[in-house]
Amino acid sequence: MRPRIPLRKRLLVRLLVATVLIALCSVGATAWLAVQTTTRAIREEQGQDLADDMRILAQLSGYAATHPDWKGVAPTVRALSKKMGRRIALTASDRTLIADSAPHGTSLPPRAAANVDPLHTDTYTEPGAQLSGLDPRVVGPYRLTAKERALLAKLAKARQACFAQNGIDTTITVTPSGRPVLNDADGNNANGDVPEQCADGKLNTPTATETRALKDLTIRTRTCLEQAGIVDTYPMFFSVDVADKSLGSRYVPGASAKQGDTADARRAQTCTDNGRRAQLDPYVAPVAELFLGGGNTTAPRFDVSPANKAKVVGAAAAVLALTVLVTAVVATRLVRPLRALTEAAQQPPELHVRVPVRTRDETGILAEAFNDLAERRERMEAQRKAMVSDIAHELRSPLTNIRGWLEVTRDGFVEPDPALLGSLHEEAMVLQRVIDDLQDLAAADAGILRLHREPVRVEDLVDQVVAAYRVSADTAGVALTGKADNSLWLAADPVRMRQVLGNLVSNALRHTPADGTVTLTAWRDGEDVVLTVVDTGTGIAPENLQHVFERFWRADQSRSRRTGGSGLGLSIVRDLVAAHDGTVEAASEPGAGSVFTLRLPNSPSPEGD
Question: How far apart are CA 274 and CA 224, in angstroms?
Answer without folding.
Answer: 9
